[in-house]
């Protein structure tokens, strides 16, 4: 398959093995009929919204996950923020939209886990997809989301992840280690217990 | 599948040029004494027989039927969801059989793969045989050349070898392939027929491969884009995404497209009044992050090509802009909402507005957008597709939108189960007008409208190879239709009177009515002239 030459990215490219592994995981997902991740992305402005199958979680062994791109952008409600500000922290990155029912379903768990893990240095960051500022702010105050979210009106942030772990549906949640490596990806809504385990796993890691 | 792949291995080793592969009818099953290898060979011949290929082709057609009768996950997921609601008992079973996603179902893939194998198994040995036949020398001249369908007998004063040499020169000049022996020459022409046949068969394989390539590495996607907004070609930004089996989200061409303006022109008078005359989606796009933005005027059947991915304009509509203030006085919604046309003549469009974060209650609105509204005796209707007199008419609800669950829902439908309709007169709103909801539930303002375009993105790496293979197949077929294989035989021996007798025979192996008579007569005449002989007898049928 011919691919266009790509601009050199700021982050280290993941090894070929990782990419193949991901590919295998994705195709295994497709084969098992669990197409929730890729095939049934939750559309915002189209009537064809349907999330099928169950959420899929991909885990990476410590130190083997791809390095997350250092995204930056404008914050919902004002200001700018870069993922670089969270270097040295475990980061939970959540792609969401106020229009997406599974995102609304998981929001209370995310808000609670943020409050719970904030003292241990875990930082939560949202990336808001296909929302207007008004609806995004209403969502965040409605669910008392205590962490910031970046606006992504042109999907540039989602595109930044294309060479590492592209979000393949909304919601998608990534857990990033202190060294900036992605250690887990959850496609579809997270549960309180499920995400808690994923966070604890990384928090327990040394360094 | 292991069964089949084993067949391939054994078959590839053993399926030489065997007559059974070619005859269409499958051979009889082997007797018990044949053992496993015999059965495998028999199975392979069954699979690669023309009859099996036809049955599989028919099966493929039949297998696609449920895809058009039942709603399909990839095409209309909301309809699938609807089917689950209306047939709660049947739907899970249909899902288990893969009938909601026929083209991705394992049994569909099995039929496709078997057909592929069957065709490959049929075509590959044939291609091998054709290649051999295209390189083969003509057969030796028969003992009795005069018994050929075309024949003539000459007598000449020259001796045998000299007469043969003269005839050989003529044949060589005519680009015949030659074979000589003791007292004879045989020659053949028209090998391009076999070449054409070979090209046709190989192109057929190429076509299959190209289709497979597209199915593996291609994808299709849709995206509705409101003017003034942009999106990137990444899975989260797409409304519908059908990846090929080996496509990962990282493989999508990372372009970004902004819709700067959408123009639709309509015929304003005459019998075609209201018919669209042109659609123009003025885009700016960049092929990858950081690349310079370029402009493109996207029109129907005039796709944009970015890195091999094609972007088509496939639909358009209006997106009225609403601003909603909730009961607490906060602006909780301010954005365009795409409405979908329900009538083509006036582009009357339907849509819903969901405000899930309004306080104290969630708010929902369902209604119509009328581009050119007129009041016809109390009934509001749109008489022209352009927005000359835009109006919006809405029904207002409050309560539970059902959006705080894992259950996805259509953005074009309001789940009214948890909602109560608010007693507001459905007065049509002009841009700038508001509805004040009773009970301090909030206010909705219709602030204006924008247009949207819907884009289809397709990437099919097999398209060009398929086209090339298709053209090659056609060329090969034409070549094999129009070129005749024909043979010439010349035998020279001493006659009873001491002069040399030269027997010339001809045989057209295919298409006997294709003018070989004249060619034979002409050649024979050239021979005769070359060795200065005279005709003693001849026949031609």
Q: Please, could you describe this protein's structure?
A:
- Chain A has helices at 16-31, 101-117, 133-142, 156-160, 192-203; strands at 56-59, 72-74, 80-82, 91-96, 123-129, 149-152, 172-176, 182-187.
- With 207 residues, chain A is α/β, with parallel strands linked by helices.
- Chain A has a single domain, classed as 3-Layer(aba) Sandwich (Glutaredoxin), CATH 3.40.30.10.
- In chain A, the strands form 2 sheets. Chain A has a 6-stranded mixed beta sheet.
- In chain A, a hairpin with a 5-residue loop joins strand 2 (72-74) and strand 3 (80-82).
- The longest helix of chain A has 17 residues, at 101-117.
- The radius of gyration of chain A is 16 Å and the shape is globular.
- Mean pLDDT of chain A is 75; it is low at 1-54.
- The two termini of chain B are 55 Å apart.
- Chain B has 12 helices and 24 strands.
- Chain B has 4 domains: 2-133, no CATH class; 141-190 and 485-540, 2-Layer Sandwich (TATA-Binding Protein); 216-316 and 456-470, no CATH class; 318-451, no CATH class.
- Chain B is 31% helix and 32% strand.
- In chain B, 39% of the residues are buried.
- Chain B is elongated and about 130 Å long.
- Chain B is an alpha+beta fold and 541 residues long.
- The longest helix of chain B is centred in the N-terminal third of the chain and has 30 residues, at 106-135.
- In chain B, the strands form 5 sheets. In chain B, strands 4, 6, 10, 11, 12, 20 and 21 form a 7-stranded antiparallel beta sheet that branches. Chain B has a 6-stranded antiparallel beta sheet with strand order 2-3-22-23-1-24, covered by helices on one side. In chain B, strands 13-14-15-18-19 form a 5-stranded antiparallel beta sheet, with no helix packed on it.
- The model of chain B is unreliable at 1-24 (pLDDT under 50).
- The chains are: A alpha/beta (207), B alpha+beta (541).
- Chains A and B meet through helix 1, helix 2, helix 3 and helix 4 of A and helix 6, strand 4, strand 5, strand 6 and strand 12 of B.
């Amino acid at each position: 398959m011919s691919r266009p030459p790509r601009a050199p990215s700021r982050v280290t490219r993941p090894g070929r093995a990782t990419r193949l592994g991901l590919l295998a995981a994705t195709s295994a997902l497709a084969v098992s009929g669990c197409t929730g991740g890729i095939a049934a992305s939750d559309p915002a402005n189209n009537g064809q919204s349907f999330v099928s199958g169950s959420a899929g979680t991909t885990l990476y062994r410590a130190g083997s996950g791809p390095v997350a791109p250092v995204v930056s952008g404008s914050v919902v409600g004002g200001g700018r923020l870069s993922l670089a500000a969270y270097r040295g922290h475990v980061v939970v990155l959540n792609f969401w939209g106020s229009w997406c029912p599974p995102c609304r379903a998981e929001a209370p768990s995310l808000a609670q886990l943020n409050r719970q893990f904030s003292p241990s240095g875990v930082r939560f960051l949202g990336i808001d997809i296909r929302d207007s500022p008004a609806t995004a702010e209403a969502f965040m105050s409605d669910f008392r989301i205590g962490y910031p979210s970046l606006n992504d009106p042109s999907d540039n942030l989602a595109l930044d992840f294309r060479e590492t772990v592209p979000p393949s549906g909304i919601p998608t949640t990534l857990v990033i280690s202190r060294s900036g490596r992605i250690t887990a990806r959850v496609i579809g809504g997270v549960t309180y217990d499920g995400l808690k385990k994923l966070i604890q796993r990384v928090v327990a890691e040394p360094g | 599948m292991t069964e089949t792949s084993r067949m391939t291995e054994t078959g590839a080793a053993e399926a030489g040029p065997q007559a059974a592969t070619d005859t269409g009818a499958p051979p009889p099953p082997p007797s018990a004494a044949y053992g496993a290898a015999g059965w495998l060979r028999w199975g392979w011949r069954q699979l690669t027989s023309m009859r099996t290929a036809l049955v599989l082709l028919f099966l493929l057609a039949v297998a696609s039927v449920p895809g058009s009768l039942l709603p399909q996950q990839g095409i209309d997921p909301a309809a699938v969801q609807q089917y689950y609601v209306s047939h709660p008992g049947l739907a899970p079973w249909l899902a288990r059989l893969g009938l909601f996603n026929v083209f991705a179902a394992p049994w569909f893939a099995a039929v496709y793969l078997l057909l592929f194998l069957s065709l490959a198994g049929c075509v590959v040995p044939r291609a091998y045989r054709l290649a051999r036949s295209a390189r083969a020398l003509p057969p030796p001249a028969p003992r009795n050349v005069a018994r050929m369908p075309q024949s003539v007998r000459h007598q000449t004063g020259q001796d045998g070898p000299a007469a043969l040499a003269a005839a050989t020169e003529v044949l060589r000049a005519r680009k015949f392939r030659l074979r000589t022996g003791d007292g004879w020459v045989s020659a053949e022409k028209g090998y391009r027929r076999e070449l054409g046949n070979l090209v046709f068969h190989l192109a057929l394989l190429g076509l299959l491969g190209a289709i497979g390539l597209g199915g593996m590495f291609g994808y299709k996607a849709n995206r509705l884009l409101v003017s003034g907004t942009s999106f990137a070609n990444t899975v989260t930004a797409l409304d519908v995404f059908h990846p090929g089996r080996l496509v990962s989200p990282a493989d999508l061409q990372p372009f970004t497209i902004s819709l700067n303006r959408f123009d639709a022109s309509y015929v304003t008078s005459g019998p075609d009044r209201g018919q669209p005359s042109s659609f123009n989606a003025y885009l700016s796009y960049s092929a990858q992050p950081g690349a310079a933005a370029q402009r493109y005027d996207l029109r129907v059947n005039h796709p944009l090509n970015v890195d091999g991915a094609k972007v088509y304009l496939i639909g358009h509509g209006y997106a009225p802009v609403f601003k909603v203030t909730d009961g607490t006085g906060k602006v909780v919604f301010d954005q365009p909402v795409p409405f979908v046309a329900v009538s083509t003549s006036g582009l009357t469009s339907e849509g819903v507005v969901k405000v899930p974060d309004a306080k104290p209650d969630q708010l929902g609105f369902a209604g119509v957008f009328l581009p050119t509204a007129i009041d016809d005796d109390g009934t509001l209707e749109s008489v022209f597709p352009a927005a000359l007199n835009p109006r919006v008419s809405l029904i207002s609800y409050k309560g539970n939108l059902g959006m705080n669950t894992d259950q996805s829902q259509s953005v074009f439908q309001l789940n009214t189960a948890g909602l109560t309709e608010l007693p507001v007169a459905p007065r049509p709103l002009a841009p700038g007008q508001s509805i004040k909801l009773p009970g301090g539930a909030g206010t909705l303002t219709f602030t204006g409208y924008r247009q949207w375009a819907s884009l289809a993105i397709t990437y099919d790496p097999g398209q060009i190879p398929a086209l090339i293979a298709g053209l090659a197949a056609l060329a090969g077929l034409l070549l094999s239709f129009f070129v005749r294989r024909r043979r010439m035989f010349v035998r020279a021996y001493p006659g009873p009177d001491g002069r040399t007798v030269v027997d010339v025979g001809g045989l057209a192996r295919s298409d006997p009515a294709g003018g070989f008579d004249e060619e034979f007569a002409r050649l024979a005449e050239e021979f005769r002239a070359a060795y200065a002989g005279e005709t003693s007898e001849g026949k031609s049928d």
